[in-house]
Design goal:
Elements lengths: L2 H12 L17 E4 L14 E4 L1 H7 L4 H11 L3
Antiparallel strand pairs: 1-2
The structure holds zinc ion.
Zinc ion binds next to loops.
Length: 79
């Protein structure tokens, strides 16, 4: 198993197998990493800065400022 897949599995487990943003059940093969603080602002690849999300959600959130993202996350509160 690749290191990335292991990280995805770990995150997916901690999120109850669901997309962080929409709460839909998420398959490991569809899961994409999303940086809470976008890499454009800070290159931080620690697990604590990563969530897994489905592709439509990840595309929708691409490089939004962290404040917006955190607001949306706290409103949705799935992870
Ligand atoms: Zn989603």
């Amino acid at each position: 198993m690749s290191n990335n897949r292991k990280r995805k599995l770990k995150l997916l487990e901690s999120q109850g197998g669901k997309c962080c943003y929409c709460g839909e059940p998420l398959d490991i093969d569809e899961a994409t990493f999303d940086h809470v603080i976008p890499t454009a602002i800070m290159k931080w690849n620690a697990l604590s800065n990563l969530v897994v999300a489905c592709q439509p959600c990840n595309l929708g959130f691409a490089d939004e400022p962290p404040k917006e993202k955190i607001l949306k996350l706290s409103r949705l509160a799935f992870c």
